[in-house]
Amino acid sequence: MKSIKIGDKDYELNFGIRFSRALSRVYTMERNIEGNTMKFGLGVRMVVGYLETADPDAIFNSYKAALAKHKKMPTDEQ
After folding, report:
1. pLDDT tens-digit profile of 22-39?
2. What pTM was estimated for this model as a whole?
3. Which of 22, 32, 42, 47 has its CA 20 to 30 A from that of 65?
4. Strand 36-41 versus strand 3-6 pairing type
5. Is the pLDDT of residue 1 over 80?
């Protein structure tokens, strides 16, 4: 696994199911089906396009999702 140093602590990055689920909470699509609005998580599929354009928010969201397994996560400011 890869890791990233934030402040003075090393954090392991995990690109598994938690990563996918965390991104799916951020990148969603809504569909109206027979009068009912349904929300679909499309995390990994949607973030790839943003990462190809070097979108700073997508980079931040990807790192944050890769850190989702840690009980004590770094703050957004760190």
Report:
1. 999 998 888 888 889 988
2. 0.78
3. 32
4. unpaired
5. no
Give backbone dihedrals phi and psi of 71, rounded to 5 degrees, phi first: -65, -40
- Say what the alpha-carbon torsion angle 9, 15, 77, 45 is, to the nearest 10 degrees: 170
Q: Residue 22 contacts by C-beta under 8 Å, 6 or more apart in sequence?
A: 43, 64, 65, 68
- 61: closest CA among 49, 77, 43? 43
pLDDT per residue over 50-75, tens digit each?
A: 999 999 999 999 999 999 888 888 88
Share in percent of the chain as helix, strand, coil (round to 5): 40, 25, 35
* Tokens matching residue 8: 């003075």
CB 40 within 8 A of CB 28: yes
The phi, psi pair for 52, rounded to 5°, reads -65, -25
Structure-token pair, residue 31: 């569909």
